[in-house]
UniProtKB/TrEMBL annotation:
PANTHER family in UniProt: ATP-DEPENDENT DNA HELICASE Q1, DNA HELICASE RECQ FAMILY MEMBER
Organism name: Actinoallomurus iriomotensis
GO molecular function: 3'-5' DNA helicase activity; ATP binding; DNA binding; four-way junction helicase activity; hydrolase activity; metal ion binding
Record bears the keyword Electron transport: no
Enzyme class: isomerase
Assigned protein family: Belongs to the helicase family. RecQ subfamily.
Protein name: DNA helicase RecQ
């Protein structure tokens, strides 16, 4: 299938934006970056997911002479990327291990003939001398290095083949290089620049804020019920991702959702490749599918209409949390990032860090990552401000996170903290046996459980001193002490132990302010805020939108591409609201470029006329 070539001769960047992509304006940063690369400059681009990184190399590739060579680790997604470009009339193709010999030959010949605007390559392929020879035989407009954080050895996505990309500018010194990533603490940023030899490149750092994502972190009480309530009350019929830590919980949660009438599919590294590919394809191609996954799922998934990302387990770092939640709402429409976390998560992850492989420095680094994540969970300030601060950026209280919408109450938990710590101290002195959080809470609440009786713990002075708080509130106290390092988890048995910080609390040298545990998440206000944001679509436009969606589903199916390759939700919403009556009017809608106008324009008008 060759795409019909648009004649872009002499078009400048803004004309290409309008004619090919159907957009009127560049987003923040895009214009400058594109101008710089079109002029032949090297660039390192840090932009959040959904910020619009692809245009930053696609437009220069179209404006400059020759083929833009895109290095990407995401072989499984290349076909979709290429399909999406072809739907716009761009001549794109890819070379990776999924092609047979003859198919490769065809792509290579097209490249040599100068008939490709964009060529996607896996990094391991670019290392081959044969590939480099091929590139020498053609005209290269630029090199784009996507997911550039894969060059970072400390990140979780390290790909050794990325290290070799530093040699690109030795072999092709005149070809501009643009590296792009959505992962970037200041340290990762420096590492990428160094390893890709981009020190002299211009660095473009966009704001990492994702204003359309509503961040919510809620205490985990009954995770399944909480998840189901979220999906039923706020995200019925929506596509979304549910992240779990283990393969077995992925399987169980997927089954649970299916049993409750929600179209959910599992995804984890233990499934065979065929099942994984099939589940991913259904998530991308059908409307309203929920994927339940370990973090093995998601990098490079550019489905624009993921309406929610739910975490049922605590992510190990803020960076991971930001990456995973960032997969929601690429299309800019209101979306939810929801995390339920509880005492067990803290205990489990602390233990995991303590017993992890690697040297002390590695463990300390992991410990710091976890501390930052816990601080984000326990904050009484705006989540977004804290999240941005982690990336070295400033923000204002956002009005679109749980702490802004329902400010948490804080209370003086010093005495409660002392009760917990002295109970742990008394138990620790026994040395005979170690006890976990549940047992400590039973003692404080004065419960005569078999274990309490067996060890005569009803005779301890702390027995029953905590009848003023509920078990749930005590779990909150223990969790917050662990989160702040005022209490520790023994790696061997997962039991509680005192830390250096504990002593100062026991000696009343410091106050401990705690976040109050809601007995039930107050969600009326949140739901109202989410609805207000989603209410962009006027009431009378809703049935028209559904009609257009049905037309899109049929058209996508016929062509074997994901629906968003035909049109994004955002474009369909605008069409449903504006109801254009001519092709000319339709062409002014965002996301309707020349190629799509020619291909679908009449069908859209017919659908609207019905
Ligand atoms: P990233 O790769 O940074 O995650 P994408 O390049 O996939 O982001 O872009 C995210 C979404 O924003 C896509 O749906 C894209 O079509 C859209 N988009 C990008 N640039 C613009 C623009 N200038 N105007 C309108 N929509 C845009
Ligand atoms: Zn906020």
């Amino acid at each position: 299938m060759t795409a019909p070539a648009l004649d872009l001769h002499d078009s400048d960047a803004s004309q290409v934006l309008r004619r090919v992509f159907g957009y009127d304006e560049f987003r923040e940063g895009q214009g400058e970056i594109i101008e710089h690369v079109v002029a032949g400059g090297d660039a390192l681009v840090l932009m959040p997911t959904g910020g619009g990184k692809s245009l930053c190399y696609q437009i220069p590739a179209l404006v400059r002479r020759g083929t833009g060579v895109v290095v990407s680790p995401l072989i499984a997604l290349m076909q979709d990327q290429v399909d999406a470009l072809r739907a716009l009339g761009v001549r794109a193709d890819f070379l990776n291990s999924s092609l047979d010999y003859d198919q490769q030959r065809v792509v290579e010949a097209t490249f040599r003939a100068g008939e490709l605007d964009l060529l996607y390559l896996a990094p391991e392929r670019l290392r081959l001398e044969s590939t480099q020879k091929l590139l020498d035989g053609g005209d290269i407009a630029l090199f784009a290095i996507d997911e550039a954080h894969c060059v970072s050895q400390w990140g979780h996505d390290f790909r050794p083949d990325y290290l070799a990309l530093s040699a690109l500018h030795e072999r092709w010194p005149d070809v501009p290089r643009i590296a792009l990533t959505a992962t970037a603490t200041p340290a990762t940023h420096q590492e990428i620049a160094g390893r890709l030899r981009l020190e002299d490149a211009r660095h473009f750092v966009a704001s990492f804020d994702r204003p359309n994502i509503q961040y919510r972190i809620t205490p985990k009480t009954e995770p399944r019920r909480q998840l189901l309530e979220l999906l039923r009350t706020e995200h019925a019929g929506d596509a979304g991702i549910v992240y779990c830590l283990s393969r077995s919980s992925v399987e169980k949660i997927a089954e649970f959702l299916v049993a409750n009438g929600i179209p959910a599919l599992p995804y984890h590294a233990g499934l065979d490749a065929g099942t994984r590919a099939a589940n991913q394809a259904r998530f991308l191609r059908e409307d309203g599918v929920v994927i339940v996954a370990t973090i093995a799922f998601g990098m490079g998934i550019d489905k624009p209409d993921v309406r929610f990302v739910a975490h049922l387990d605590l992510p190990k770092s803020v960076e991971g949390y930001y990456q995973e939640t960032g997969r929601a709402g690429r299309d800019g429409l209101p979306s939810t990032a929801w995390l339920a976390y509880g005492l067990q998560d803290v205990v489990q992850l602390r233990k995991l860090v303590e017993t992890s492989d690697g040297d002390d420095a590695h463990r300390r680094r992991q410990g710091r990552h976890l501390d930052s994540m816990l601080a984000l969970c326990e904050t009484v300030e705006c989540r977004r401000v804290q999240l941005l601060a982690y990336f070295g950026q400033e923000g204002k209280p956002c009005g679109n996170c749980d702490t802004c919408l329902t400010p948490p109450e804080s209370w003086d938990g010093t005495i409660a903290a002392q009760k917990v710590l002295s109970a742990v101290y008394r138990l620790d002195r026994e040395r005979r046996q170690r006890f976990g959080a549940g047992h400590v809470i039973d003692i404080l609440m004065g419960k005569k459980t078999p274990k309490v009786i067996q060890f005569d713990h009803d005779e301890l002075t702390v027995f029953g001193v905590g009848a003023d708080l509920s078990a749930n509130e005590w779990r909150g106290v223990v969790r917050q002490l662990l989160a702040r390092g005022l209490l520790a988890v023994e790696p061997d048995h997962g039991t509680l132990a005192l830390t250096d910080g504990s002593a100062s609390v026991l000696r009343r040298e410091r106050e401990v302010l705690m976040r109050r545990e809601p007995e039930r998440t107050p969600k009326a206000k949140l739901a109202k805020a989410a609805k207000a944001a989603a209410a962009e679509l006027p009431e009378e436009a809703a049935p028209v939108f559904e009609k257009l969606r049905a037309w899109r589903a049929a058209s996508a199916k016929e062509q074997g591409v994901p629906p968003y390759v035909v049109f994004h939700d955002k474009t369909l919403r605008e069409i449903a609201t504006v109801r254009p009556s001519s092709l000319e009017e339709l062409s002014t809608v965002n996301g309707v470029g020349e190629n799509k106008l020619a291909k679908y324009g009449q069908q859209i008008l017919d659908t609207l006329a019905e």
